[in-house]
Amino acid sequence: MTQVHDLAILGGGPAGYATALRATQLGLDVVLVEEKEVGGTCLHRGCVPTKAWLQAAKIRAAVAKADRVGIGAILTGVDAAKVRSFADSVVSGLHRGLTGLIRSRGIRVIPGHGRLVVDAEGPALDVDGELLRAHNIALATGSTPVTLGLPTDGERILTSEHALRLERLPGRAVILGGGVIGVEFASLWRDLGVDVVLVEAAPHLLPNEDPDLVAVLERRLRARGVELRLGEKAKGIVRDGDQVRLQLPEEIITADVALIAVGRRPLTSGLGLEEAGVALTSTGHVSTTRELATTIARVFAVGDLVVGPQLAHRGYAHGIFLAEHLAHLMGERPIRPRPPEDRDIPRITYSSPQFASVGMTREQAAATGGCEFSDFDLRGNARALMLAPGDRDAGLVRVVRRPGGPVVGVHAVGDEIAELIAEGTLMVGWQATPDDVKDLMHPHPSLSEALAEANLALAGSALHMHT
Questions:
Q1: Which tens digit of pLDDT belongs to each residue from 282-339?
Q2: Helices 47-64 + 180-191 axis angle, to 10
Q3: Does this model's pTM top 0.90?
Q4: Angstrom distances, CA of residue 2 to CA of 131, 154, 332, 422
Q5: Residue 444 is a catalytic residue
Q6: Catalytic-labelled residue, pool 442, 444, 464, 466
Q7: Strand 195-200 to strand 227-230: parallel, antiparallel, or no bridges (unpaired)?
Q8: What's the alpha-carbon Rg for the chain, to the nearest Å?
């Protein structure tokens, strides 16, 4: 007799394995299908190795400006192969830990390529010709880089996944795309000594973020030597021997490599979704309800397959919710979970300086009910001045609230500022008012004081700000 699992998951990235881990905690029988390795793009080809490269770049940048704080240091160069080895060691250690955790929970992992099929008995997964049946199916196959049809070759014309495997740094690089991926690679390559040109069709970097704070990021990048070409749309890229040529409307930019960093698209092809009757949106995402259900009964989608921010922690949130939702439907959990809201998801760009945000921008809040906001300039924060010695733009923290009401957005730009956004997420998620949090003490000297000061200003009791 064919075994029928409670839940079969297609894809072992953050959304998929989070679904599996939480579901087993709740008593469900789970099987996970993964074609490559558990951890997905984030662990192996995205978030984690990128941040390891950024950490190496940060160390080089600190050595380069050590004299600003009275430290003598000699910078002898960058061994890109060793940086890659460092990133690989971080990835491999985390991968071992993850596989051990999955094994300890009793989750069966089936290697192979899975396709969704629906027959008279309901939905199932066809894994390399073997039919895997379950009462519920979760689609969690993630995303893949968008190339705009450009001829990436992994040597001169790169995606972010190619860029992470380089063992020799280019002398000059052109980056197409000023979103999170493009900005992070522009920052880390520049800090590793590469000449960088960043081309973005929109008038600003990070087009979905608050333009006032993005302006600080742009000034800092330019001050470090990154050439920003904003509001310019590329017409094409060609490889010419050991160089690439990027065609702009009125100019050709020549470089050693070109990085295509215009985003990622959901990985839905080759999975049998449309043949099975799963509806897709015009962007190729899986069409889902608020509870992440697809158009096929008992088939769900999580993570990057669902329209919204492509973030690992969003995948975790989707996975946890879906597991709890299924457990509730099966009578294993009395509490009905609340679906995660994209507005509550924090966003971080790990460039130098870092950019972090959660909730609405000032413009978004103003257009949907009005807003009040408060800015704290990090030139007034002792810790920020220590972290960015000699930089004219230490950064900015902004808190946005409804008039007389709760905080709906927190935004920050500055060195090491990303750690503030967890507190901002609590404020936005709990719909706290500035008065609710104004009496919470923040240690001195710390970056967290900047968020406290912005809140105090909105509560009418600013301490270290002119009002």
A1: 999 999 999 999 999 999 999 999 999 999 999 999 999 999 999 999 888 888 999 9
A2: 40
A3: yes
A4: 9, 44, 24, 46
A5: yes
A6: 444
A7: parallel
A8: 24
